[in-house]
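Reopening this one. Same input as before:
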Amino acid sequence: MTGLNMAAVYVVQTLGSLYLLIVLLRFILQLVRADFYNPISQFIVRATQPLLQPLRRVIPGFAGIDVPSLVLALVVQVIVMSIIIKLMGYALPAVLQLLVWSLVGITALFLKIFFFALIISVILSWVAPQSHNPAVLLVFQLCEPVLAPIRRFLPSMGGLDLSPIFAFIALNLLDMLLITNLAIATGMPRGLTLAL
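Same output, byte for byte:
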């Protein structure tokens, strides 16, 4: 692979991952019922609306799940992976294999979003526990559905919240046992992954 191709792969991978992140955040924020009047939520809505609006006309949501956002994430991942495969000089795999690789990448990014949101929320709980910044509020809204079930099972520790530790363990186990094994089982090339 030439230096120009490597640069092109880097640009496509970076921009594709960034847009995929925004699309997945839109799905997650709706899933956790975050405040859509938050300025960051409004940015995410505006950034995804041009591509999501036509999809919404064709694909309905189901049981409160934003299915069009998931379909858009899958389409973005498939397109970006296809471009990267061609830039790397490989032949495109079968459509089904490309879809499976895309699902693995989306699932990995989904877990990483929660992982990094938890890290940010732990730091913010120490540094700015009473902050009313829109970004801080959004991070706490994003983490609460992950932490709330764990808190129900943990005994009270006198004001010390250990639920993020158990959430980190669960997310890392999912990443190690599920994502890594799925990537290996489906034959996903290492240089190809967007989110792993």
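So the earlier flakiness isn't reproducible anymore. For the record, Residues 3-192 form one domain.
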